[in-house]
């Protein structure tokens, strides 16, 4: 037993987090920044943070993740990090020649009180930022929120580049939230099918699912451009996917540039995708093409074909709020039963939303999302009420092995499998893939466990 | 097949160095010039390199931080101590199971906390009002849940800044709990210039709070400690297998596959064998001064090196029975190694490698490449000091800068009751005269050929330049470097975590490594970089269907 010390009896803990269902803000800011064209993320703090974030993102995406660090030592920690950041910006623009540098803070630079706007302003005045180049930034102290809020803060930093000329550009802003490069690609494909011109930010497709060609480009072709971000203030509206990841940026555009916004769920599963497609149709004033309706029907078809295998199967989930809300709705919509849901990212609305989505189920869901919510607690819940399936990141594999429960890897980080960069889980096509993964896990288990007398060829 | 490695570039190292430096702003270029050395064999001295100095802000470095070195590298592989990270959640999360430390906790009652991540998950109110109360409560909660023998506490950046006295909290809780050894590490990420500072802080605290606490170790006639071996990919298991086979008892490994009791009884062993010089040479010195245990440098990476190291250990103990047994074991193990080497070598001979890892691996792994007939054309360390490059003779002349002064040096003296010299002065002298070198390490530079490039704290831009200009057949570094190198069409082997492979130590490890390198440098995939239409983009005059 790999988690042999986890007891069944649940004791209240107030101070000790064990096996967290979240990580810290800066990694989210770093991932978001990689979705800007020609952007080098920069971590303002000591170099270990940057090394850890790059390592984790690399292990998940299996792609080079470049990022600078201010490399604080004790001196900078005492006297402030301004000199380090000024030097860093100079070196970065000289050596790597990015279009944009996206600076985020760490708990170190936040604790000593480094003022990013002031330092970036000084860098501009001192001529450390070459003409035509940009710096965006976000405050991401690690002792607030989680990787999800860090992502959101950097996306808001992107929205702050928006300008308002008074002349509409006829486009729709889409803020996809923390999803895979493949998901961003799928959102662009769907918008294309529907015939709506969009500004998608961030957009990591083409950057974090790149080809192997014998050439290394620190700044590949993909990503939202600074020009597109500037133009986001002239869009006809914004669709923000996920309250936690995307709403702040959308509301900023609404408040400051009068770009009306709607906050939707991430389009994972049938209903959330329906709402996304419908919203896009309405905001752009177009009709949905038959091709999209056809894809929808395929997902519905698959749900009906295999319903007997997942009907009323119990699921435990760990992950990030926006994703978990969409997944919970999807599971309920196909008659599966989410029974335990844990997210380390705080936010009271989460529990309320999960309770609403599961209100019609014949039991009360275990749900926790504050900073004391961790995978140790999830494991204890499972020991008390076993489940048929786990859905979440790679760290759940220990629990899956100990308790002999099939695991569907989904979310962040996935360190031990491939495919998430290439195959979307958003949209109807994504729904089909997600359902296939769930079914395969359940059917593989059934094939393993069925007695020889009832081992079936046709399922 | 068209290889990505045809058309070797002209390899004048001086030209390459110049080319790399031109891109930098002048101040950066001046600093880097001293850390990039073109190796030349000098008569009696090794050329000097600048190492263990600050990373340049904005330059994409391979290095990590002090916390990573302390919690991740040194204490990470210890299974029965509850390691609590005191800080915001990130540091604990990133050091959770990511180093491929293996441990054998298969005994039914064995404690194993390595699969758990413990953190105080500090929030903004803890930063404002201080986190000591929360830490105290976290230690109590961990104790109530698990009743471990030991609880260790690791400081992250903000803890040092707000001034939480983690040592006082640890001491208070140790007293309160009674049967649990609680101690702490001031390993804030900003201390020092690399992971190396963290190794030092970890080792000092293990030496101070753990070693010497248990006077009974594993039984055996020839008892050693293995220092600086972290059981990445199971290296420690293979070394232990060999030692066992020879009849040598490995009482304590610092710190691969380690346990609380092993550390506690380390002072009872009769010899310290040091693998990773960088991470732990000072512990070997302290064990000698305080308890009278001599140390020798060993290297179990490479079949030849492993054989040599086993012979050194046997020579130290001096019993003919052991010396014969070691020879028998080598004779038993070598044929399989040689057979694989013979099979693989036609495909690896003459190929070139670059190694940029750690503070000993970049040296040790050159042995394995030599056994494959491969030449290391450039190498360097991520966090080494000058002595790891140039040899221990430079230690008295090392400049102690402000960053090094931050790292505590323990003053030790002979323990009143536990000191006992394992060999008399005369015996040591006789052994030295017969060729057994105590406390010796010549460093990496003398082992590298003339004209090779030795580069300290290599960064991403330089790595890319080196690969494009020198076109090695394989590049070895860490996960952050892996995919940028592979995009260039060059296979990249992780030597911190071995990707999915290992063990690479000892004889079985050599076989694994030969096969792995054969696989990597001869994989068909590196021939697929260009599509047929990219190889010949011009439309030719004749068409196939004509």
Explain how this protein is built:
The complex is a heterodimer of chains A (459) and B (546). Chain A has helices at residues 25-33, 47-61, 74-79, 82-95, 107-111, 116-125, 147-159, 181-194, 226-231, 243-257, 270-284, 290-305, 307-310, 321-333, 348-357, 375-384, 397-403, 427-449; strands spanning 17-18, 39-44, 68-69, 100-105, 134-138, 172-175, 198-200, 237-241, 261-264, 314-318, 337-342, 366-368, 389-392, 407-409. With 459 residues, chain A is an alpha/beta fold. In chain A, the strands form three sheets. A five-stranded parallel β-sheet of chain A has the order 12-11-10-13-14. Chain A is globular. Chain A starts with 16 loop residues before the first strand and ends in a 10-residue tail after the last helix. Chain B has 22 helices and 14 strands. In chain B, the strands form three sheets. Chain B has a six-stranded mixed β-sheet, with helices on both faces. In chain B, strand 8 (271-274), helix 12 and strand 9 (295-297) form a beta-alpha-beta unit. The interface between A and B is large, with 85 and 91 residues. Strand 1 of chain A pairs antiparallel with strand 3 (118-119) of chain B, so a sheet runs across the interface.
